[in-house]
Design brief:
There is one protein chain. The protein is an alpha+beta fold. It has helices at about 1-10, 15, 20-40, 100-105, 120-135, 205-215, 230-245, 265-275, 335-340; strands at about 45-50, 55, 60-65, 75-80, 85-95, 95-100, 115, 145, 155-160, 165-175, 190-195, 225, 250-255, 265, 305, 310-315, 355. It has a seven-stranded mixed β-sheet with strand order 7-9-10-11-12-13-14, with helices on both faces. A four-stranded antiparallel β-sheet has the order 3-4-5-6, with helices on both faces. A two-stranded antiparallel sheet has the order 1-2. Strand 11 (about 190-195), helix 6 (about 205-215) and strand 12 form a beta-alpha-beta unit. Helix 6 (about 205-215) packs across helix 7. The longest helix is centred in the middle third of the chain and has 18 residues, at about 120-135. It is elongated. This is N-acetyltransferase domain-containing protein. Pfam families: Acetyltransf_1 (PF00583). GO terms for molecular function: acyltransferase activity, transferring groups other than amino-acyl groups.
Length: about 375
């Protein structure tokens, strides 16, 4: 696997060269996996980690992870560390293995700042940031116990690029989009749904910049939402943003889907209430203190949960967290990688986990009834 390392060193990265053809990518991946499983490769190959450690490329050291919660047939092949099968060290793309950090890099100088996710290669970058980086590497695995699926295939998202690398992202729910997989309610306003910034880039105002970008993107809408419940870290971002932008104070609401008036709470009012230490007058929010709520968007998903006794389906990439300038951690995990990424493509759809990672949303277990399939992360 020296060729892959050489290409990375030469400044050639998957997002820059991957064809926008998911079907062809999956076909090539399945073919490669078949050679590993059947042991018909001419020689044993290894993948070298930055530490110098080498991992044998064999069926027992790889797993398939579901890329999209609503299209489980689309999978990506990941190489896991034999010493920690929940840690992904490389991804199979363009008929080659790429270290996770190289998957997040680009040689295109035009990729800088917040850019809308459009290509298949950018979807893979979003998946790695969400599932691999946040899901397993940059959060406290001892906290929380929520599991979610990956983002939907058509999720509206923007990736934050800095100095040739993807360092964060945020996703939104557009007005009129379905709150679940089947027919039913649609969002009544645009919603700032999930957000994540890598640890080394936190405390630089990036969380506030993302929230501002969201507000500017939907300039024509009279009301905008931030998914309920808002985490303490995200609340700090909202407070900082609203203090600097008084014109947005009447537009920003904490919302539950689909965002009807009875499902909204004024974020600016919460800021004022916290400052005056007065109780929250909104019955829907009275159960939580603004300093301890985590944010989530109920959508479709395998988990049923609800506030005040009502059941709601939640989506995978949706209950992520909000972030703060101090830390933005949106959690999503395509499943406990050691378990959801099975060696067989036909394995169960991976789940994804949301946990507190500095800016990550707090576990919503306090607010919702655990789903039958919920588990406690190792």
């Amino acid at each position: 696997m020296e060729a892959e390392a050489a290409r990375g060193a030469a400044g050639i990265y998957p997002v820059d060269i991957l064809e926008d053809d998911p079907e062809r990518h999956l076909e090539a991946t399945l073919g490669y996996y078949a050679t590993l499983r059947e042991g018909i490769r001419s020689s044993v190959e290894v993948f070298s980690l930055p530490t110098g450690e080498q991992i044998k490329l064999e069926a027992s050291s790889v797993c398939f992870c579901t890329m999209y919660r609503d299209e489980p047939q689309h999978k990506i092949l990941a190489l896991v560390n034999p010493q920690d099968t929940k840690t992904v060290v490389a991804v199979y793309i363009q008929e080659a293995w790429w270290a996770t950090e190289d998957v997040l890099r680009t040689s295109d100088p035009a990729r800088e700042g917040l850019m809308k996710v459009q290509s298949f290669g950018e979807r893979i970058v979003l998946f790695v940031l969400n599932v691999v980086i946040f899901g397993r590497l940059e959060r406290n695995l001892d906290d929380g116990d929520m599991f979610f699926l990956p983002h939907p295939v058509k999720e509206q998202a923007k990736i934050l690029w800095r100095d040739g690398a993807a360092v964060g992202f945020y996703t939104t729910k557009r007005k009129g989009s379905l709150c679940g997989d089947g027919p039913g309610a649609c969002y009544l306003l645009p919603v700032f749904d999930t957000v994540f910034v890598r640890r080394t880039y936190r405390r630089q105002g990036l969380g506030t910049a993302m929230l501002q970008d969201f507000c500017e993107t939907f300039r024509e809408d009279e009301a905008l939402g931030v998914s309920w419940p808002i985490s303490p870290a995200m609340f700090k971002v909202c407070r900082k943003f609203l203090l600097a932008h008084p014109e947005e104070r009447g537009r920003l609401w904490e919302v539950e889907p689909p965002g009807a008036w009875g499902q909204r709470g004024s974020i600016w009012l919460k800021v004022q209430l916290q400052q005056s230490r007065l109780p929250d007058p909104h019955p829907g929010n009275s159960q939580e203190d603004v300093s301890s709520c985590g944010r989530t968007s109920p959508d479709d998903g395998p988990r049923m949960s609800g506030r005040e006794g009502g059941k709601k389906e939640r989506t995978s990439g949706e209950r992520e967290q909000t972030k703060s300038d101090e830390d933005c951690g949106v959690e999503e995990e395509a499943g406990q990688l050691g378990r959801a990424c099975g060696a067989e493509p036909a394995r169960k759809e991976a789940k994804r986990t949301v946990l507190d990672a500095g800016l990550a949303w707090e576990s919503q277990k306090k607010h919702m009834r655990p789903a039958p399939n919920s588990q406690t992360p190792p």
